[in-house]
């Protein structure tokens, strides 16, 4: 697997490797929904944003993560990342995903996941995983709607920024499952509007 950061686009949705120019638009997107952050393992909202950004850029520089600014019609609405990249095992995770409220429920997530999954499998991935907090019903439903298979739950997997102990639901899409998942996403995108 040779997974690289590059610009990806589908219709009005574009994913661009995170750069310094995305910092303030992403901060604004993160601050658009301050009530959501207890569902995440970390907070991107102020006053946590600067620490989040520094850590994200350090992981990006080391190659541990490939983060993308997600835009709708040219405006940054959030972020999604490749994580736990393991080229020797031909696997990675897609995670660290957040969209501001007006970017949810339409074209953004299915287009972003079509792009990220397609790029991963085109780059030689054998397996792409998603790891979701068990209490985050909306994210769990979104991953199931993608066509990913739920594998199990990692009990008391981690402590999140609020101190809550998180159970993590693990989903995956395998290389031989990708064509059917791709068709499903393309069919969904044919019926949604921006």
From TrEMBL:
Domain (N-acetyltransferase) ranges: 14-148
Annotated coiled-coil segments of the chain: none
GO MF term set: acyltransferase activity, transferring groups other than amino-acyl groups
InterPro entries: Acyl_CoA_acyltransferase (IPR016181), GNAT_dom (IPR000182)
Keywords (A to Z) from UniProt: Transferase
Domain of life of the source: Bacteria
TM spans (from-to): none
Keyword Repeat in annotation: no
Protein name: GNAT family N-acetyltransferase
Species in which this protein is naturally found: Sphingomonas horti
Upper classification of the organism: Bacteria, Pseudomonadati, Pseudomonadota, Alphaproteobacteria, Sphingomonadales
């Amino acid at each position: 697997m040779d997974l690289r950061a590059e610009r990806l686009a589908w219709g009005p949705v574009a994913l661009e490797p995170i750069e310094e120019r995305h910092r303030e638009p992403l901060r604004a997107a993160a601050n658009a929904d301050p009530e959501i952050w207890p569902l995440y393992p970390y907070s991107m909202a102020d006053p946590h944003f600067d620490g989040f950004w520094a850590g994200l850029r350090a992981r990006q520089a080391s190659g541990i993560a490939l983060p993308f600014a997600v835009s709708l019609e040219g405006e940054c609405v959030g972020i999604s990342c490749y994580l736990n990249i393991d080229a020797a095992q031909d696997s990675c995770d897609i995670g660290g995903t957040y969209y501001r409220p007006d970017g949810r429920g339409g074209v953004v997530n299915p287009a972003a996941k079509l792009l990220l999954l397609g790029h991963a499998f085109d780059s030689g991935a054998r397996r792409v995983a998603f790891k979701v907090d068990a209490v985050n019903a909306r994210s769990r439903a979104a991953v199931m709607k993608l066509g990913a298979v739920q594998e199990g739950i990692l009990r008391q997997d981690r402590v999140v920024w609020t101190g809550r102990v998180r159970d993590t639901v693990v989903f995956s899409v395998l290389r031989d499952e990708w064509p059917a998942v791709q068709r499903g996403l393309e069919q969904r995108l044919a019926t949604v509007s921006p």
